[in-house]
Design a protein that fits this description.
Length: about 325
């Protein structure tokens, strides 16, 4: 079956000014991976990793410097119309026409895709997005969260088989996150492919069946969510501490105030960590051991400490992830 999305060695150079001089900055470096039809796929990465750049190239809003992107086999540059019809993109930035009402905006967008009499589906969208009572409000009267819902509606007016959401829940309330994920999960169950970028790793862990991690424009991990969770150190030692960790431990620890969390795969490793803290004259309190979650894996991958894991799903920075 044709891939829903195929990124083939996609590169992007931005020309940036630095100290009065122009130079090229590589925002994407030969990114390659495929997303199968029906997948719920998560693209993760810290700020500035290149997620929005990749998605804007996919959406035809930005031009790649090299490589190509196909949507259901249609090249987003050479065959833009067909690629665009298969895609619904919810952009990271809130952009819309403030003079339209919500319903007018959805009708106008339907018209753009050549769909007349779309009101049944528009009503379903309004219902599912908790917007039914806002249908006649002007866009400029809506709160940020409500505008975000309209953007989702706008992306879905033409029932695209591939739905792309760029940080749809950044800065929105818990209620919207719930409503939105229920709706997107339902669409995914009905066969729509979903590509999502998010900062909320617990969301990605709960929703996505497969994940790619992007770091400085390169794919550094590509695997199913469960593989990623298994291949990372499977346990995390958590304790409270007054005082600074010895440098050997500080490097690999996640520290929030007094709380220290360190990945440790075996009982021996756990003993060793505790012994090292005691040797440094420290007294760990409230010691707990828990299973690693996606945030632990993410931090390991981003800090490079997972790159050398034997036979693992984690590529190093020179390697690129392949196809599913
Ligand atoms: N139009 C642009 N001109 C120059 N640099 C840009 C432009 N857009 C993004 N960048 C840079 O490219 C990198 C990736 O940005 P972006 O794709 O927005 O990352 P993400 O969405 O993962 O936070 C960042 O370093 C950003 O500053
Ligand atoms: Mg972004």
């Amino acid at each position: 079956m044709t891939s829903a999305i195929s990124f083939q060695s996609v590169s992007k150079l931005y020309s940036v000014k630095q100290g009065g001089e122009r130079r090229d900055f590589k925002a994407l470096d030969a990114v390659s991976f495929d997303i199968a039809q029906g997948e719920f796929f998560g693209l993760l990465g810290p700020n500035g990793a290149g997620k929005t750049t990749l998605i804007s190239i996919l959406a035809g809003l930005n031009r790649a410097s090299g490589g190509r992107v196909l949507v259901h086999g249609h090249d987003v540059q050479a065959d833009y119309g067909n690629a665009r019809r298969h895609l619904g993109v919810v952009p990271q930035e809130l952009v819309f026409d403030p003079f339209f009402s919500v319903r007018e905006a959805l009708r106008f967008q339907s018209g753009y895709f050549g769909i007349a009499n779309n009101d049944d589906w528009i009503d379903e969208l309004l219902d599912n997005l908790g917007l039914a009572d806002k249908a006649n409000n002007n866009m400029r009267q809506l709160s940020g969260g409500m505008k975000r819902r309209v953007l989702v509606g706008l992306a879905l007016v033409h029932k695209p088989p591939v739905i792309v959401l760029d940080e749809p829940t950044a800065g929105v309330d818990v209620e919207l996150r719930q409503t939105l994920w229920q709706f997107i999960a339902k669409l995914n169950q009905q066969g729509h492919t979903v590509l999502l970028t998010t900062h909320y790793l617990e969301e990605a862990e709960a929703l996505c069946t497969r994940l790619a991690m992007l770091k400085r424009g390169q794919i550094v991990a590509l695997a199913s969510t469960s593989e990623l969770l298994h291949e990372a150190s499977s346990n995390v030692l958590r304790f409270k501490l007054d005082g600074a960790l010895p440098p050997s431990l500080a490097q690999r620890a996640r520290v929030t105030g007094r709380i220290v969390q360190i990945a440790a795969s075996s009982a021996e490793e756990i003993e060793l960590v505790l012994a090292q803290t005691r040797q440094a004259g420290l007294r760990p309190e409230d010691v707990e051991i828990r299973k690693a979650d996606l945030e632990d894996v993410f931090l390991q991958v981003m800090s490079g400490s997972a790159a050398s894991m034997p036979g693992s799903a984690f590529g190093d920075e020179r390697k690129q992830g392949g196809t599913p």
